């Protein structure tokens, strides 16, 4: 009896793990299906016209029908978001390193980085649109909202280096550059990636906010502009279709950055540790 | 060769340390480290042994007193090896890269250093773990990597802060013997911190017993048993007598610290 028991136990644990994994994948899908069905029912039962609430099917049809417009808009928004993110990464890490090297620079500039962060970007966007070409203004908005989490987290990471490791480096006569490259930056990497994950979502938000503030048509008008435009024309199905694309972009970005984090940290960081079965 | 000479490597005079928190870790510490000796600082927990070692290495500033180095090259970059009380490994680097660190910082290429790094890892029984990451090691194994890292460069002065505290008795005895062999072979000067009376007697020429906060020298004992010392020394009457003396000094030191 005891032999059977010991042999069955791991198998049962395995089963449970597998069931857990399926549950995690299937539950949100089931919730989505239920939500869409409920949405469809509401539209059918109340006989709602499409300009009040389009049915899910109509939204899907619009997505395909307007694909040419939406695809171009999506590419525009994606490009701005990525550029904003890259600039945020460069600016955030660059500033954090600068702050880390010089107290004086940190004390003089950090407060203004905070000011930039706490001032709502919706309020800054119109001003930027006056002074900068539209493309650049949109990019600047994406950058403003996205760079701060990178800066704040990288600064924290650079400052939370193990004191004894720092002592060891100085004992072996390491230069400032060596300490930065071989000690501080690797130690800050997990924090940096945490900041990047937040910045990804924020960059998209910044781009969208700026586009909405810009509000004027142009060759390079993105998804947010299409949403505003559809609103004016009461083209509600297209509004929904563009919104779905925006969400999908955000989700894809989050998944991509999570994967990147996992890839870079899986060998050594506690956060990537797989629980022992 | 493995004998303490009259030459002083470093001397501490009236060294005191007061932390920003107000804690007085050291008060009026006088200590000479002599060329080629195996010196042990023995004292109760919190008496300032780690603090004294850090000040000696120049990792921490004394609040008072002077530290003199007759031969300035003895404290040049890479001349001092330090084993911290914690393993202090880079979690993002594997075992080899951690032990290779001192060479990398000295500008030695990986290929040039590989033989010495691997020899040092073999010496602490971790030759097979060169590719493992610190997170995959036990506490004792991490500590051994840290020891290998300090030994690999063959420093002139080796400062070790309770390096074997996390190890089982067998490994500790083995590393005790390895350390003594290395010390005899190379004529390194060792300053060793421990709170184990037995370990201090087995290893050292000289034991400095410190009082608890603020840390001062309470007593100084010489262990004149010649090297090489082997396992039979651990069971000898001589060893027991030395241990008794050291224990009594430690008890006295703790009482002196409390009254201070
Ligand atoms: N960075 C610090 N800031 C404030 N107080 C400190 C600091 N480091 C050590 N101390 C204090 O100094 C005293 C001596 O500490 P130290 O680490 O030197 O003790 P120790 O003899 O090495 O003890 P143990 O055997 O437990 O390692 C302690 O009371 C400790 O609280
Ligand atoms: Mg200590």
Describe the structure.
The complex is a heterodimer of chains A (about 280) and B (about 260). By secondary structure, chain A is mainly α. Chain A has 2 domains: about 45 residues; about 220 residues, MetI-like (MetI-like fold, Orthogonal Bundle), CATH 1.10.3720. Chain A is built from 10 helices and no strands. In chain A, α9 runs antiparallel to α10. The longest helix of chain A is centred in the first third of the chain and has 44 residues. Chain A is flat. Chain A starts with a helix and ends in a 12-residue tail after the last helix. In chain A, about 35% of the residues are buried. Chain B is α/β, with parallel strands linked by helices. Chain B has a domain of about 180 residues: P-loop containing nucleotide triphosphate hydrolases (Rossmann fold, 3-Layer(aba) Sandwich). In chain B, about 40% of the residues lie in helices and about 20% in strands. Chain B contains 8 helices and 9 strands. In chain B, the strands form 2 sheets. In chain B, strands 5-6-7-3-8-9 form a 6-stranded mixed beta sheet, sandwiched between helices. A 3-stranded antiparallel beta sheet of chain B has the order 2-1-4, with helices on one face. In chain B, α2 crosses α3, α2 runs parallel beside α4 and α3 packs across α4. The mean pLDDT of chain B is about 90. At the A-B interface, α7 and α8 of A face α2 of B. Magnesium ion (MG) binds next to α1 of chain B.
